[in-house]
Amino acid sequence: MIVRDGIPEDVEQMSSFLRELTASGKRTRPDDEAFVLANYINDPDKICCSVAEDEGVILGFQSLKKAKEGNQWGVEPGWGIIGTHTKPSAARRGVGRALFDMTRKAADEAGLSHIDASIGATNSEGLAYYEAMGFRTYRTLEGTICKRFDV
Ligand SMILES: CC(C)(COP(=O)(O)OP(=O)(O)OC[C@H]1O[C@@H](n2cnc3c(N)ncnc32)[C@H](O)[C@@H]1OP(=O)(O)O)[C@@H](O)C(=O)NCCC(=O)NCCS
User: Locate the N-acetyltransferase domain: which residues (predicted)?
Assistant: First the structure.
Protein backbone atom coordinates (compact mmCIF):
# COMPACT_ATOMS: atom_id res chain seq x y z
CA MET A 1 0.00 0.00 0.00
CA ILE A 2 1.23 3.47 -0.83
CA VAL A 3 -0.14 6.80 0.32
CA ARG A 4 -0.09 9.64 -2.19
CA ASP A 5 -1.93 12.82 -3.15
CA GLY A 6 -5.36 12.17 -4.59
CA ILE A 7 -5.93 13.12 -8.24
CA PRO A 8 -9.08 13.57 -10.35
CA GLU A 9 -8.62 10.06 -11.82
CA ASP A 10 -9.22 8.63 -8.31
CA VAL A 11 -12.67 10.17 -7.99
CA GLU A 12 -14.59 7.28 -9.54
CA GLN A 13 -13.26 4.76 -6.98
CA MET A 14 -13.57 7.22 -4.08
CA SER A 15 -17.20 7.88 -4.96
CA SER A 16 -17.84 4.17 -5.37
CA PHE A 17 -16.87 3.25 -1.83
CA LEU A 18 -18.53 6.35 -0.39
CA ARG A 19 -21.73 4.95 -1.93
CA GLU A 20 -21.07 1.68 -0.09
CA LEU A 21 -20.70 3.64 3.16
CA THR A 22 -23.96 5.48 2.41
CA ALA A 23 -25.77 2.20 1.72
CA SER A 24 -24.64 0.77 5.05
CA GLY A 25 -25.79 3.89 6.92
CA LYS A 26 -22.28 5.14 7.66
CA ARG A 27 -22.46 8.27 5.51
CA THR A 28 -25.13 10.93 5.11
CA ARG A 29 -23.32 13.58 3.04
CA PRO A 30 -23.33 13.36 -0.79
CA ASP A 31 -21.24 10.62 -2.39
CA ASP A 32 -21.38 11.38 -6.11
CA GLU A 33 -18.28 11.99 -8.24
CA ALA A 34 -18.93 15.73 -8.68
CA PHE A 35 -19.14 16.17 -4.91
CA VAL A 36 -15.94 14.20 -4.33
CA LEU A 37 -14.08 16.23 -6.93
CA ALA A 38 -15.32 19.60 -5.67
CA ASN A 39 -15.13 18.91 -1.93
CA TYR A 40 -12.04 16.75 -1.59
CA ILE A 41 -9.70 16.79 -4.61
CA ASN A 42 -10.33 20.36 -5.80
CA ASP A 43 -11.54 22.01 -2.60
CA PRO A 44 -10.22 25.60 -2.56
CA ASP A 45 -9.58 25.31 1.20
CA LYS A 46 -7.72 22.00 0.81
CA ILE A 47 -4.46 21.46 2.63
CA CYS A 48 -4.19 17.87 1.44
CA CYS A 49 -6.31 14.98 0.26
CA SER A 50 -4.36 11.74 0.43
CA VAL A 51 -5.36 8.36 -0.92
CA ALA A 52 -4.11 4.92 0.09
CA GLU A 53 -3.65 2.75 -2.99
CA ASP A 54 -2.79 -0.90 -3.48
CA GLU A 55 -1.97 -1.82 -7.09
CA GLY A 56 -4.46 0.61 -8.56
CA VAL A 57 -7.19 0.00 -5.98
CA ILE A 58 -8.02 2.98 -3.78
CA LEU A 59 -8.47 1.67 -0.23
CA GLY A 60 -9.25 4.95 1.50
CA PHE A 61 -8.74 8.68 1.57
CA GLN A 62 -8.31 11.43 4.10
CA SER A 63 -8.98 15.11 3.52
CA LEU A 64 -7.63 18.04 5.49
CA LYS A 65 -8.93 21.53 4.84
CA LYS A 66 -8.48 24.86 6.54
CA ALA A 67 -11.47 26.20 8.48
CA LYS A 68 -12.58 29.53 7.09
CA GLU A 69 -14.64 32.21 8.86
CA GLY A 70 -18.30 31.07 9.01
CA ASN A 71 -17.58 27.45 8.02
CA GLN A 72 -20.57 25.13 8.22
CA TRP A 73 -19.07 23.04 11.05
CA GLY A 74 -18.53 26.01 13.36
CA VAL A 75 -14.86 25.14 13.65
CA GLU A 76 -12.48 27.84 14.84
CA PRO A 77 -11.09 29.66 11.75
CA GLY A 78 -7.50 28.63 11.05
CA TRP A 79 -7.89 25.12 12.46
CA GLY A 80 -7.75 22.08 10.20
CA ILE A 81 -10.88 20.04 9.45
CA ILE A 82 -10.32 16.34 8.79
CA GLY A 83 -12.40 13.61 7.17
CA THR A 84 -11.47 9.94 6.71
CA HIS A 85 -13.05 7.17 4.66
CA THR A 86 -11.83 3.61 4.26
CA LYS A 87 -13.29 1.22 1.70
CA PRO A 88 -15.40 -1.21 3.78
CA SER A 89 -13.59 -4.31 2.52
CA ALA A 90 -10.26 -2.75 3.63
CA ALA A 91 -11.35 -1.62 7.08
CA ARG A 92 -9.23 -2.25 10.18
CA ARG A 93 -6.11 -3.02 8.14
CA GLY A 94 -4.17 0.14 8.95
CA VAL A 95 -5.37 2.28 6.03
CA GLY A 96 -6.59 5.09 8.29
CA ARG A 97 -3.42 4.96 10.33
CA ALA A 98 -1.22 5.22 7.21
CA LEU A 99 -3.28 8.12 5.89
CA PHE A 100 -2.95 10.06 9.14
CA ASP A 101 0.85 9.75 9.06
CA MET A 102 0.79 11.80 5.85
CA THR A 103 -1.94 14.19 6.96
CA ARG A 104 -0.19 14.98 10.23
CA LYS A 105 2.96 15.95 8.32
CA ALA A 106 0.93 18.13 5.96
CA ALA A 107 -0.74 19.83 8.94
CA ASP A 108 2.63 20.53 10.46
CA GLU A 109 4.02 21.92 7.20
CA ALA A 110 0.92 24.11 6.79
CA GLY A 111 1.52 25.58 10.26
CA LEU A 112 -1.76 24.35 11.76
CA SER A 113 -1.98 24.22 15.52
CA HIS A 114 -5.20 22.17 15.84
CA ILE A 115 -7.32 19.78 13.75
CA ASP A 116 -11.04 19.19 14.30
CA ALA A 117 -12.73 15.86 13.68
CA SER A 118 -16.53 16.04 13.98
CA ILE A 119 -17.95 12.54 14.35
CA GLY A 120 -21.48 11.24 14.68
CA ALA A 121 -22.11 10.42 18.34
CA THR A 122 -23.16 6.85 17.44
CA ASN A 123 -20.23 6.25 15.05
CA SER A 124 -18.22 4.01 17.37
CA GLU A 125 -15.55 3.10 14.79
CA GLY A 126 -14.99 6.73 13.83
CA LEU A 127 -14.74 7.75 17.49
CA ALA A 128 -12.33 4.88 18.24
CA TYR A 129 -10.23 5.67 15.16
CA TYR A 130 -9.72 9.35 15.95
CA GLU A 131 -9.09 8.59 19.62
CA ALA A 132 -6.40 6.09 18.52
CA MET A 133 -4.82 8.78 16.32
CA GLY A 134 -4.51 11.08 19.36
CA PHE A 135 -7.65 13.23 18.99
CA ARG A 136 -9.50 14.11 22.20
CA THR A 137 -13.06 15.33 22.75
CA TYR A 138 -13.25 19.10 23.21
CA ARG A 139 -16.94 19.80 22.61
CA THR A 140 -20.19 17.94 22.11
CA LEU A 141 -22.96 19.19 19.83
CA GLU A 142 -26.36 17.61 19.27
CA GLY A 143 -25.59 14.18 17.78
CA THR A 144 -21.95 15.05 17.13
CA ILE A 145 -18.78 14.65 19.11
CA CYS A 146 -15.91 16.97 18.16
CA LYS A 147 -12.39 15.80 18.81
CA ARG A 148 -9.27 17.91 18.59
CA PHE A 149 -5.72 17.00 17.64
CA ASP A 150 -2.95 19.30 18.79
CA VAL A 151 -0.39 19.41 16.00
C1 LIG B 1 -13.20 5.22 10.89
C2 LIG B 1 -12.42 4.65 9.72
C3 LIG B 1 -11.93 5.78 8.85
C4 LIG B 1 -11.21 3.86 10.30
O5 LIG B 1 -10.37 3.50 9.20
P6 LIG B 1 -9.52 2.15 9.19
O7 LIG B 1 -8.69 2.19 7.95
O8 LIG B 1 -10.41 0.98 9.37
O9 LIG B 1 -8.60 2.34 10.49
P10 LIG B 1 -7.26 1.58 10.87
O11 LIG B 1 -7.32 0.15 10.45
O12 LIG B 1 -6.08 2.35 10.41
O13 LIG B 1 -7.34 1.63 12.47
C14 LIG B 1 -6.48 2.44 13.27
C15 LIG B 1 -6.93 2.31 14.71
O16 LIG B 1 -8.22 2.92 14.87
C17 LIG B 1 -9.00 2.15 15.81
N18 LIG B 1 -10.14 1.56 15.10
C19 LIG B 1 -10.39 1.60 13.77
N20 LIG B 1 -11.55 0.96 13.48
C21 LIG B 1 -12.03 0.51 14.66
C22 LIG B 1 -13.19 -0.23 15.01
N23 LIG B 1 -14.08 -0.63 14.09
N24 LIG B 1 -13.38 -0.54 16.32
C25 LIG B 1 -12.48 -0.14 17.26
N26 LIG B 1 -11.36 0.56 16.99
C27 LIG B 1 -11.14 0.89 15.70
C28 LIG B 1 -8.08 1.07 16.34
O29 LIG B 1 -7.39 1.57 17.48
C30 LIG B 1 -7.12 0.89 15.18
O31 LIG B 1 -5.87 0.36 15.55
P32 LIG B 1 -5.68 -1.26 15.69
O33 LIG B 1 -6.34 -1.90 14.50
O34 LIG B 1 -4.18 -1.42 15.71
O35 LIG B 1 -6.35 -1.63 16.98
C36 LIG B 1 -13.29 3.65 8.91
O37 LIG B 1 -13.91 2.75 9.80
C38 LIG B 1 -14.37 4.34 8.07
O39 LIG B 1 -14.12 4.73 6.93
N40 LIG B 1 -15.60 4.46 8.62
C41 LIG B 1 -16.71 5.07 7.87
C42 LIG B 1 -16.51 6.56 7.64
C43 LIG B 1 -16.33 7.29 8.97
O44 LIG B 1 -17.07 7.06 9.89
N45 LIG B 1 -15.31 8.15 9.04
C46 LIG B 1 -15.00 8.87 10.29
C47 LIG B 1 -15.81 10.09 10.47
S48 LIG B 1 -15.33 11.33 9.27
Answer: 1-151
